[in-house]
Amino acid sequence: MRSATGSTPPVRVAMLGCGTVGTQVERLIREQSADLTARVGAPVELTGIAVRRPHRHRDVPEELLTTDAEALVTSDVDVVVEVIGGIEPARSLLLTALAAGKSVVTANKALLAEHGPELYEAADASGADLYFEASVAGAIPLLRPLRESLAGDRVNRVMGIVNGTTNYVLSAMDATGAAYGETLEEAGRLGYAEADPTADVDGFDAAAKAAILASLAFHTRVPAGAVHREGISRVTAADIAAARGMGRVVKLLAICDRVVDEAGGESVSVRVHPAMIPRGHPLATVGGAFNAVFVEAEAAGQLMFYGQGAGGAQTASAVLGDLVAVARNRVAGGRSPRESAYADLPVRPMGQVATRYHISLDVADRTGVLAQVAAVFAENDVSIATVTQRGHRDEASLVIATHLASEDALRGTVEKIAALSAVREVVSVMRVEGEEP
Ligand SMILES: NC(=O)c1ccc[n+]([C@@H]2O[C@H](COP(=O)([O-])OP(=O)(O)OC[C@H]3O[C@@H](n4cnc5c(N)ncnc54)[C@H](OP(=O)(O)O)[C@@H]3O)[C@@H](O)[C@H]2O)c1
What we know:
By secondary structure, this protein is α/β, with parallel strands linked by helices. 35% of the residues lie in helices and 25% in strands. Strands 7, 8, 9, 10, 11, 12, 14, 15, 16 and 18 form a 10-stranded mixed sheet that branches. Strands 3-2-1-4-5-6 form a 6-stranded parallel sheet, with helices on both faces. The termini are far apart. NADP nicotinamide-adenine-dinucleotide phosphate binds at residues 16-22, 50-53, 56, 69, 83-85, 89, 107-109, 134, 138, 310-311, 315.
């Protein structure tokens, strides 16, 4: 699209929100104006920024600020960048923008995980683009590789560390041996945890990201509510110590698997929970607030994506990448790939997912205890991989690693073992990932 004078008209951009991420998006658009113009093939012009409290944004040109987000999205703009967060008013504003044919770039994982299909349908109906690279794993290019680079392959597994706060807490517990509560408090003091850390520590944030990853990887709509979710608040210093004693480390993992049953039927399992992985696993060395995602695809084999999963400038980098992509489409007259949910695979209930457990027990030091415990495993059809028996009298312990079994069978086994009179305490129960079964 060229104007009568031969110069290409600017791509006009409205931004909703100007906080940690938005401030950096505004700065990068301003500072990189010449480069963006060259890369897009037209100037990228920020025409307005919607915020709640304009007086708090002294670094941004005053004439850009507005509190009327609705008027901004319905104004004469080509692209709407949403960095407000949360469901409303972000959802309504983006639906309005898409219905009017404006392309959307968003960093909002909660919105995508809850209302992705509605947004995709609105984009499809008007022919607009919908990009959301920044919604998962901050600066790390991950969604576009899944959506575009791996579009010709068959992804079988996506497993990763997608929440920096919980990774920081678990890494610190591993380094110091400290308890969960005091480590979380310290993380809050150092700025690694929000004042209300619920979304992070209870796994909601990671579950939203897992839903987005699974949807893209398996060409299937996976809502956030279908993701099995366990956070880190029940991980104890004893769990961390047990893992350390076996050369393992505890991580909060988002795991998306393609499951093929004996009859060849396919489903997907999507879960977020703490798990032990070997210290030699590539994800084990991902420390602090970093994110990393491991992808296994049939032809490509194993791929690893690593980098900063949050932060204003880091996340803004992903937003700008999307902005350039949609702006180029505007200039060239093309469109991004649409949502691909053709496979429509069912989501397997967690109880039917095959996992492996590691169980540490404090037991009475008397003959027959091991036989009693082993009998419970046998009754529940759970096969034991290794047993280590240690200590005498008050110090006696049994450490059991299982083979793969259904989650229902494993849970049932642990419940029955806990009820045995010879078992004084179930010290630690943790799933094991990242090893050959
Ligand atoms: N921060 C990160 O590291 C990170 C990483 C990845 C993804 N994200 C995602 O990026 C998005 C933005 O995160 P953030 O950390 O930048 O958030 P933030 O610092 O809390 O900023 C939110 C911005 O939205 C504005 N806002 C809130 N409600 C509004 C409304 N009703 N109308 C207009 N403006 C409104 C706020 O205005 P006022 O300033 O005037 O109150 C503020 O400027 C979220 O979806 C988040 O999940 C963030």
